[in-house]
Design a protein that fits this description.
The complex is a heterotrimer of chains A (289), B (414) and C (324). Chain B is an alpha/beta fold. Helices cover 42% and strands 18% of the residues of chain B. Chain B contains 14 helices and 15 strands. In chain B, the strands form three sheets. A seven-stranded mixed β-sheet of chain B has the order 7-6-8-9-10-14-15. A five-stranded parallel β-sheet of chain B has the order 2-1-3-4-5, with helices on both faces. By secondary structure, chain C is mostly helical. Classes of the chains: A mainly alpha (289), B alpha/beta (414), C mainly alpha (324).
């Protein structure tokens, strides 16, 4: 039983990290109807920025500044390119961001080289800790707390600020927002920047656990993608629940049949879609018929 | 004519001319054309760069002496993208368009299998460097295909008996769930059986796994506790696992064994998270003839390389290229069959190892010495590049697959 | 009669017919065969994207499966050429038929999302099931056996020139079939579904059925292309099914202008493969330029080359009708 609880606990913690990873992807998909394939590359950029900044600024400052830089890059790519394909065939956005992902990957190779790097976890959370029923990594507990704070902040932003209300309206009906006379263009830019910054912060958090390589973004994108479809496009709660489901399915599968732990999330996705075609929390929107 | 007719027609003609111009003069006769097919993108890009540095050094050495057969050597590089289907395509390109006399490179075993298949059909000599899967000189061996590095079987038979005798005989396996990983564990198992040990279980890890927490928790809960965890995890996943072993504090209570440690992986995680007992192909601090000189030469040639010393990948790139070029000199010919004949059964004495390397004529495996090493901690290390304590070595003929064990049957000469 | 010679299809055939005379010595044959195979794939795919308006981002799934099935039939059932190829087409059509039951009810971004998930699922299956597919090493040793015609006579296609003309003939047949299809009532309904699905429904067409048909047709051609590609490379691999490679065929359709013109994918496939080929030889950092190029094409040539020169009506139908 102890093993089951350990895996359950780990699955939940992992799920929180996955939720953070998926959040930015979900926002951009929900508001702009763009499948942002550069999400993984932005995630990697966040980790690499943190790698470069940490020796100079320390852990906390780089935790904030690295995602901000990624956010600025996000603003730039939205302003220079992505905004031109809103409302067009979804494949255009998909291909464009895929091209950006390739370009970013190569830029990382040019700037930081092809070799891998390791970022040390901050001293106060290095190593393991006993939780009574299991030993666990201090860093992951810290990371889970950080993820909860982040999720809380995004939730407050979406639920309690006028900005959030507009974004949510944009999720369900962008024409309505336009009719209300709001500056949809600026909202979209901000959301893209925010989504990118969230990808960046996920990268900073994941860096010390997963080690850095130029290709590190590729593997991250698919879980984010599956989470969003499971949870329902454009749903904050959906992204969190989807994250937890993917985290749990990964860690609990290890108990039974480790080989399937990667495949499992796709199977869950299939089941969810058969039962609830719009995802668990998805509301009916213009995106699908 | 309709507009689309014109555009389609003009487009085709334009493309044709473009092709002609980009490839004019590629197949000049006064040079030896050497194709390098190695990853510049994808997961193994760093190791690809490392092996290309070694190849470049060897080529430059020969060119400084006037080349081979009185011709300069020209290197043409193509990127495998760490993807076997791209690798096969690029290999065809090198053979058909650049008309290379021979090819080297790979890093990924699956790319090597795909390349050697088209190389055999195109009858071009191909050295696969830095691959370890036993299939490259086993099930998928070819007349034109040679493997420069030791295979999984050699690595495992090098390190595993030592582990069984000196650390313990209760093993748990962590296996990367693809051909290379599974073949490694299979070899480990056969040794365990021979040594009379006991297997306590296995975790198959999907390729591309970045998070090992669930597996590590599982290991933590194992009863009875294994003496050692034997891992065959490759590439980026391996470095992520090493990070997490420390994150979860498993390093204190468990010991780890690996089939092979690539130097770049050790470099990535750094001295603080260096762990385990494993086999290595070569090491820049080995006390073997020629190593010091090679390291000095490398430092002079690549002052800006991120890793300041030659890695095992660089070593293989260098040795492979040198062996190939020397074979051309011995054969006094650039014809495929002549080069193959000059290589089969050849022995390399100045290989920067204690014992010479021998090219087995019937499966084209470079039979060579393999070293057993332990990870050094930050305290033990002499400098920032010193990651291994070499604790022993195994001579090639003692660890290589016998003819009865190897399914390889080479095709006749073309 | 003369008007047929001015037809883009005829020009394409003529170019590919005489091409070997110019490129054989230079060693471009494999590349040219590759272009023809991708044309088949992209033209079939365009039935789904350009004519029915369903944005699939997972057609690598059918291409990859076609390659595997071709090899598996050759190695386990019959060492021939026709049956493995037909088997691949049939099998891919069947898979598309099954997943289409679910997919055909979707459109837009949901359709794209689901196809990505599907191709990734199949990628994992192909990768893990190494007893059958060869796993990461791929399925090696796929041969080009001689073509036999009812045991009467046989033509070897192992040589590069003969394989070239074999693929060429298949290309001709495929293009003519697709042309006929687009200009049949089926094509009109598909196009109507793209323009306005609700209206098509009101007109009494079962739009889900037609979307399903388009998916199956495109999958059959993808399977055919996959099988031909496996014979070209003598191996089948899982990588074409990975989502990072799924964009290739979409780019080919877009670059050429497939969204607005029947012949777009021909130009697109040729240009795409040429660019990929040239750019990766010039610089080690080709990923950067390749990625940026994709971005620029989407930005400045969203309708592709033929679209940019304003060739053809949105459907590519009327234009040709006037012309021929």
């Amino acid at each position: 039983m102890a093993e089951f609880y350990s895996q359950l606990f780990n699955g939940l913690i992992l799920g929180l990290l996955f939720a953070v990873m998926a959040l930015g992807f979900m926002l951009i998909l929900g508001v702009m109807e763009v499948i942002n394939f550069s999400h993984g590359a932005l995630f990697a950029l966040g980790a690499y920025f943190a790698l470069t900044l940490q020796p100079y600024l320390g852990y906390w400052a780089s935790l904030i500044i690295a995602p901000l830089l990624v956010g600025i890059i996000g603003l730039f790519i939205e302003w220079s390119a992505v905004r031109r394909i809103y409302g067009k065939d979804p494949l255009l956005g998909l291909l464009m961001t895929l091209g950006m992902a390739m370009a970013f990957e190569e830029i990382i190779r040019i700037v930081w080289g092809k070799i891998g790097y390791s970022i040390a976890a901050p001293k106060f959370v290095a190593g393991p800790i006993s939780l009574g029923f299991m030993w666990y990594s201090k860093y992951r507990l810290f990371m889970a707390a950080l993820a909860l704070v982040l999720l809380g902040l995004v939730w407050i932003f979406l639920e309690k600020t006028p900005y959030g209300a507009i974004i949510k309206a944009g999720v369900s009906d962008s024409e309505m927002v336009l009719a209300l006379g709001k500056n949809l263009r600026r909202i979209r830019t901000v959301v893209f920047g925010l989504g990118s910054a969230l990808a960046g912060i996920a990268g900073v958090i994941a860096g010390p656990m997963w080690s850095l390589k130029p290709t590190m973004g590729t593997e991250v994108l698919m879980p984010a993608f599956v989470i969003v479809v499971i949870g329902g496009i454009g749903s904050f709660r959906g992204a969190v629940i989807g994250g937890l489901i993917v985290g749990l399915s990964k860690s609990l599968t290890v108990l039974v049949w480790p080989r399937l732990s990667d495949l499992m999330m796709y199977l869950v996705l299939g089941i969810v879609l058969v039962v609830r075609p719009r995802g668990l929390m998805g509301e009916k929107s213009l995106l699908e018929q | 004519m309709g507009k689309s007719t014109k555009i389609v027609g003009f487009g085709m003609v334009f493309l044709l001319t473009l092709f002609m111009f980009t490839n004019l003069g590629l197949a000049a006769d006064d040079v030896v054309r050497m194709g390098v097919i190695s990853p510049a993108s994808g997961n193994y890009a760093d190791m690809g760069a490392a092996e290309r540095r070694g190849m470049t050094m060897a080529v430059e050495e020969f060119n400084a002496r006037g080349g081979v057969l009185g011709k300069k050597i020209k290197m043409t590089v193509e990127d495998t993208e760490t993807d076997p289907s791209a690798a096969a395509r690029k290999a065809k390109k090198l053979m058909e368009r650049n008309k290379v006399h021979f090819m080297l490179g790979a890093v990924s075993s699956s790319c090597a299998v795909a390349i050697s298949e088209v190389a055999q059909r195109g009858n071009t000599v191909y050295f696969n460097t830095n691959t370890n899967s036993s299939t490259c000189t086993g099930k998928y061996c070819h007349r034109t295909n040679f493997r420069v590095g030791p295979n999984n079987h050699m690595l495992v038979f090098g390190v595993a008996p030592w582990i069984a005798r000196n650390i313990g005989k209760n093993w748990y396996f962590i296996t990367h769930d693809y051909t290379w990983g599974r073949s490694g564990t299979k070899e480990f198992r056969s040794i365990l059986k021979k040594e009379g040990g006991k297997e306590l279980g296995e975790s198959l890890i999907p390729l591309g796994t970045r998070d090992f927490s669930s597996y590590l928790i599982k290991i933590r809960n194992l009863k009875p506790k294994p003496d050692i965890i034997m891992c065959t995890i490759g590439g980026v996943d391996n470095t992520a696992m090493m990070e997490q072993i420390f994150e979860f504090g498993i390093d204190k209570d468990f010991r780890f064994g690996f089939s092979l440690r690539d130097y770049s992986d050790a470099w990535t995680v750094g001295l603080g998270k260096n762990i385990g007992t494993f086999a290595i192909e070569w090491y820049h601090l080995l006390d073997t003839p020629g190593t010091k000189e090679f390291v000095a030469k490398y430092k002079k040639r690549w002052p800006n390389a991120k890793i300041p010393i030659p890695e095992n990948n660089t070593y293989q790139g260098y040795i492979g290229t040198r062996t190939m070029l020397r074979a051309v000199e011995r054969a006094k010919s650039l014809k495929t069959n002549d080069i193959i004949r000059a290589l089969e059964g050849h022995t390399i004495y100045d290989n920067m190892k204690n014992f010479p390397t021998y090219i087995r004529p019937w499966d084209h495996q470079f039979v060579q010495e393999v070293y057993i090493a332990k990870a050094k901690t930050a305290k033990e290390a002499k400098d920032l590049t010193d990651f291994y304590r070499v604790i022993g070595s195994m001579k090639g003929p003692d660890i290589v697959r016998s003819r009865a064990e190897n399914p390889c049957k080479l095709e006749p000469y073309k | 009669m003369v008007r047929y010679f001015r037809h883009p299809m005829f020009i394409t055939f003529a170019v590919f017919l005489i091409l070997p005379a110019f490129i054989m010595k230079l060693g471009f044959m494999t590349l040219a065969i590759e272009v023809m195979i991708w044309i088949i794939f992209a033209m079939g795919y365009n039935i789904l994207l350009g004519y029915t308006g369903l944005p699939s981002f997972g057609h690598g799934l059918f291409f990859g499966t076609g390659a595997y099935i071709c090899g598996l039939i050759q190695q386990h059932i019959i060492a021939g050429t026709w049956i493995p190829i037909l088997g691949s087409m049939l099998f891919c059509g069947m898979i598309a038929g099954i997943v289409g039951l679910f997919l055909a009810r979707k459109r837009g971004i949901y359709f794209a999302l689901l196809t990505i998930a599907l191709t990734q699922l199949f990628f994992f299956i192909a990768f893990l099931w190494d007893g059958v597919t060869g796993g990461e090493d791929g399925l090696m040793g796929i041969e080009r056996y001689a073509l036999t015609f009812f045991g009467l006579f046989s033509i070897p296609i192992e040589g590069i020139l003969s394989y070239y003309y074999f693929v060429f003939v298949i290309l001709m047949v495929s293009l003519i079939l697709l042309w006929k299809m687009v200009h049949s009532p089926l094509g009109s309904v598909l196009y109507a579904t793209k323009q306005n699905e609700v209206r098509a429904k009101y007109l009494g067409y079962n739009s889900v059925l037609y979307k399903w048909i388009a998916l199956v047709i495109s999958a059959i051609f993808a399977g055919l292309a996959g099988a031909l590609y496996a014979m070209l490379m003598h191996g089948a691999f899982a990588n074409p099914m990975h989502w990072t490679k799924s964009g290739d065929v979409v780019m080919m359709v877009l670059i050429g202008g497939g969204l607005t013109n029947f012949f777009g994918p021909i130009l697109g496939a040729a240009i795409f493969i040429a660019i990929r080929d040239i750019i990766s030889s010039i610089t080690e950092h080709w990923y950067l330029f390749y990625g940026l190029l994709i971005v620029f094409i989407i930005l400045f040539l969203p309708e592709g080359i033929l679209g940019y020169f304003r060739v053809g009506h949105a459907s590519g139908r009327e234009e040709v009708l006037e012309e021929v």
